[in-house]
Write a structure and sequence with these properties.
heterodimer, A: alpha+beta, four-stranded mixed β-sheet, three-stranded antiparallel β-sheet, 15 helices, 11 strands, 47% helix, B: alpha+beta, 2 helices, 4 strands, 21% helix, globular
Chain lengths: 416, 71
């Protein structure tokens, strides 16, 4: 049965979507073809299900522990921002979306397991180009020309394997070999590629095929880059849509990182990167009072659920990072998903959840996107006087940008 | 009335949210990649236990009121 032949069930309620995301009968696996037969995401964690998915996440989640997140947020990313933003913003105008991608790809590459010179802009732009291709692949159901996307993604897997993953793989294999012979683990990197190689012999991970490791590493590179850049761009777009209040919020965020985090959470709520999540019913099931037949395509309309007035207030459609919410309601709504496939990078990008009273303690993490937004805010972004933003027209998703030119009032600002 | 805490290790994917929210009740076993329940977990602050239950991405944690406590 092709996707087009399946019955479609659309869920729009917040609780129903959450329930669906926990339902083991609803899978992210749409295309059961192998990689050789044309499923460009064959075997990657995002579309795996059940025991295989759990086994992968148990291994890969080790790279998202609070100590790693603190290292990224408090040491590594501020240095990236300091080193790169001054180079990327040369005059008083710049295109924010590719800047967001370049800033994000540095740590995404490190987390994925690529050994790159993270101040080499040519390398970073090369990786961003690859991420762009992989992002088209991950949104294949919304692609306007899926066959050409599949061909491009296949070629890009080959390219990233040859030029980036194989050298990193060989180095890690050598270190792991020395470690097995009683050597030190001091040189052992902390990243996805390393843990996959370290645990490869575990049959539950289904990593016999080298191509699966390549695709898994590429998935984490893409996931850590594209959505962060889209989110910071959407934040700026939403604030530019509030002429006076938006400017005041941008100015406040320059010195208030907690506000910057709430700006990002509010952006994710109103413009989730995946506005409509999709699942396939492996077996007939019921969500709330909705009966879902086997093989149905289940569309989870997170963008609508994220504007539920019962949870987010009567002004749920408005952008208000200071909105009051009940305890336990995630300010980002369902933007990171829920259930087993909840975004593993949620705390990297969005930080820790904000309490109902908006307070934070010394252990709180604000998320890398908030840091990125604050660094851009300090440069005084205003709408570009002559150039308009351009959406990514290769996808039906309305939350994706291709270019977002802005004017900076303080292009040379640094950390205060 | 007390509570009882159940953790299903088969469902756990090692997100460690529970360990972050209630470190006195849950510990992450890095070797297995899953959380384990600590002795005395049911005595931990109830709000933290319920936070852990609500934030577990796989529903591996169940906190229940112990109706028969003391019986």
């Amino acid at each position: 049965m092709t996707i087009a032949d399946r019955p479609t069930v659309v869920l729009r309620g917040y609780d129903a979507i959450r329930q669906a995301l926990f339902d083991p009968n609803l899978s992210r696996t749409f295309d059961t073809r192998s990689y050789e037969e044309g499923n460009i995401r064959d075997g990657v964690v995002s579309v795996s299900h059940g025991a295989l998915h759990r086994a992968r996440r148990r291994v890969e989640n080790s790279q998202f522990r609070p100590d790693r997140l603190r290292l990224y947020e408090r040491d590594l990313f501020p240095a990236v921002l300091d080193d790169l933003l001054g180079v990327l913003i040369e005059g008083d105008t710049a295109d924010v979306f590719p800047i967001g991608e370049i800033l994000s790809v540095v740590l995404a590459a490190r987390r994925a397991g690529l050994d790159i010179d993270d101040r080499d802009l040519d390398t970073l732009r090369d990786l961003v180009h690859m991420v762009d291709v992989f992002s088209q692949g991950s949104a294949i159901l919304d692609a306007r020309d899926p066959d050409s996307v599949r061909a491009l993604v296949r070629a890009t897997y080959d390219d990233i394997e040859t030029r980036y993953i194989r050298p990193a793989w060989d180095r890690r294999a050598r270190i792991l070999h020395e470690l097995a012979a009683g050597g030190s683990d001091e040189e052992l990197p902390h990243d996805i590629l390393t843990v996959l190689l370290e645990h490869r012999s575990d049959p539950t991970l289904e990593l016999d095929d080298d191509g699966r490791i390549v695709r898994e590493v590429a998935t984490y590179l893409q996931g850590g880059t594209h959505t962060s850049a889209q989110t910071v761009t959407n934040a700026i777009d939403l604030l530019f849509g509030l002429p006076d209040r938006g400017r005041a919020l941008i100015d406040r965020a320059t010195t208030d990182l907690a506000l910057a985090q709430r700006v990002i959470h509010e952006t994710l709520r109103l413009r989730p990167t995946t506005p409509k999540m999709k699942r396939r019913a492996l077996a007939a099931t019921t969500v709330g009072d909705v009966a879902i037949p086997a093989e149905a395509l289940v569309v989870l309309d997170a963008a609508t659920a994220n504007r539920d007035p019962a949870l987010f207030g009567p002004d749920a459609d408005a952008f208000d990072p200071d909105r009051q919410l009940a305890d336990g309601v995630a300010r980002w709504g369902l933007a990171f998903g829920a259930g087993p496939h909840q975004c593993p990078g949620r705390s990297v990008a969005g930080g820790f959840p904000v309490s109902a009273d908006l307070s934070t303690d010394g252990d709180h993490l604000f998320g890398l996107v908030a840091l990125m937004f604050q660094a851009i805010a300090r440069r005084g972004p205003r709408p570009h006087p002559t150039r308009s933003p351009e959406r990514d027209t290769r996808t039906e998703r309305e939350t994706r940008w291709a270019h977002y030119p802005v004017y900076f009032e303080r292009p040379a600002a640094t950390r205060s | 009335m007390g509570v009882h805490v159940i953790l299903d290790p088969d469902l756990c994917i090692g997100s460690a949210e529970c360990n972050r929210l209630a470190p006195d009740a849950f510990r992450l076993d890095e070797g297995l990649g899953v959380s384990i329940l600590l002795p005395g977990a049911e005595l931990v602050d109830r709000a933290r236990l319920f936070d852990s239950e609500a934030n577990c991405p796989t529903g591996a944690i169940t906190i229940g009121a112990d109706d028969e406590a003391g019986a």
